[in-house]
Amino acid sequence: MSAIFRILFIVAGAITALFVARDALNFTIIQTFVAVLLVTAIVGVGSFWSQRRKT
């Protein structure tokens, strides 16, 4: 489980670094927000994928 979170935060850090400087005070907050958005997107894609396969 921790490996999944590490990979997720690596991807979220790379995406966040495109928009916010790494030495900004709120970088970790925005990185966590991006990670939550990524999890939501992955769950959403997974649910729509399973819905599509049923029909």
Automatic annotation (TrEMBL):
Segments traversing the membrane: 32-50
Name of the protein described by the UniProt record: DUF1328 domain-containing protein
Protein keywords: Membrane, Transmembrane, Transmembrane helix
